[in-house]
Specification:
By secondary structure, this protein is α/β, with parallel strands linked by helices. It has 13 helices and 15 strands. It comes from Ramlibacter henchirensis.
């Protein structure tokens, strides 16, 4: 049966796995795939997604591990994931740089973008030879956030600690991402790109009206500048175009709405703060700026709040659809829990919690979160379990549009 309004993805709900490989502020290289035992549990993790009716997953190819230098690459680190995808028929969105780059690479050097492009070309050839299409890539994950935590806050390499370094890093990452897109499409001309960055709302403290201008600059300029470069609105000399921007992945977390701080990360707003704006409004700002297909690239609540968070995100998403936005999916990220980067404590933000046991980390789906997902799959007339060929019944966005009209939710700022 032909879809009346074909979606980009085989399912409306997507997921993914934390795959950061940054060099942390203590100098150690982190591998979140190892910390969550995803590599050795890849088949189990993908079977969970298949059983939940999720046919697309964000997954990482770790640049620091795959790049052996001198134009040599070893992609054996993703072999378990590729085999799991092959068995479950789940389509990956390959993150090619998730906050980590090789030790001997300098993001501020002219050669950085060329080296990244060469790696992207090799990665595209590898996955094309291993898995059937369609092919999706996120060349550099969260350029804006990467620039903050690596350029201004000093959390990860290259350990910058001022605004000027953050701005230089952002331009360098955008230059590399544009080169990476072009390199991938030399190998796979019809590959699709999903460029993800956080949705952000920053307000000045009530007793500091003098900080209003700085807060608004971060909200209405810094939030969009990386996407602007990728699509050619800013720094056109980098070669950005709307086709390079392609699909806009807007990440939505509660801590994306913040009170301004002059030094270091801002303070997350409490749920009842008057400065909070509805998710639908944040999405509308993106839509009106780019008019490109959109995806909620990551979202999750915490602990017992996960089902309520999903309900709120979906109601806001349906309100966005009713306003005419071209929304193609919602990525419930991560599929399994992940540790807090700073404390190492489990965040309890995944579809599955991780429970320590004698043979490793057991995956335990969070029942209320799964129940809420099932409810929304039925509301949208979507599958709740994948069949042998997820692409045999592609998403018909008309089903989503019809559900949005029937439910008619109103945008609101209530996060309770």
């Amino acid at each position: 049966m032909n879809a009346r309004h074909p979606g980009i993805f085989p399912t409306f709900f997507l997921s993914g796995f934390e795959c950061s490989t940054f060099r942390w502020k203590d100098g150690r290289r982190r591998d979140l795939v190892a910390e969550t035992h995803h590599r050795e549990n890849a088949l189990r993790d993908y079977e969970v997604l298949r059983d939940l009716g999720i046919a697309v997953s964000r997954e990482g190819i770790p640049w620091p591990m795959a790049d052996q230098g001198g134009g040599r690459y070893d992609f054996s680190c993703i072999k378990p994931m590729v085999e799991a995808m092959r068995q479950t028929r789940i389509t990956p969105v390959w993150d090619l740089c998730h906050y980590g780059y090789p030790d001997d690479a300098d993001p501020f050097a002219d050669a950085f973008s060329d080296r990244f492009a060469e790696y992207c070309r090799a990665a595209a050839r590898h996955v094309q030879g291993e898995l059937p299409g369609p092919y999706f890539f996120t060349p550099i994950n969260e350029i804006t956030f990467f620039a903050f935590c690596g350029g201004e806050w000093g959390w990860v390499a290259p350990y910058g600690k001022d605004r000027a370094t953050r701005e230089r890093l952002r331009v360098a990452l955008c230059r590399a991402a544009i080169a990476g897109v072009k390199a991938i499409r030399e190998v796979i001309p019809d590959a699709r790109m999903i460029h993800v960055d956080p949705l952000v709302q920053v307000v000045a403290p009530a007793d500091r009206p003098d900080q209003k201008e700085a807060a608004e600059h971060e909200t209405f300029v810094d939030t969009y500048l990386a996407w602007d470069m990728l699509c050619g609105k800013a720094h056109p000399e980098l070669g950005g175009t709307p086709e390079i921007l392609d699909i806009v992945g807007a990440n939505n977390y509660s801590f994306g709405q913040m009170e301004y701080r002059e030094q270091g990360p801002h303070q997350a707003l409490p749920p009842d703060h008057p400065g909070i704006v509805p998710l639908c409004e944040l999405l509308r700002r993106v839509w009106e700026r780019y008019r490109r297909p959109m995806l909620i690239g990551e979202t999750s609540g915490m602990g017992k709040g996960r089902p309520d968070w999903l309900r709120d995100v979906m109601e806001e998403s349906m309100a966005a659809v009713n306003q005419g936005m071209d929304l193609h999916g919602v990525c419930l990220f991560p599929g399994v829990d992940m540790p807090d980067w700073h404390t190492g404590e489990w965040l309890h933000n995944g579809i599955c919690d991780l429970v320590e046991c004698e043979d490793g980390l057991r995956r335990v789906p969070h029942g209320p979160y799964v129940d809420e997902l099932r409810r929304w799959q039925k509301e949208l007339n979507r599958v709740t379990r994948l069949d042998e060929d997820p692409f045999s019944d592609p998403v018909d966005l008309q089903d989503v549009i019809d559900a949005a009209r029937r439910l008619a939710p109103k945008p609101d700022a209530n996060w309770h």
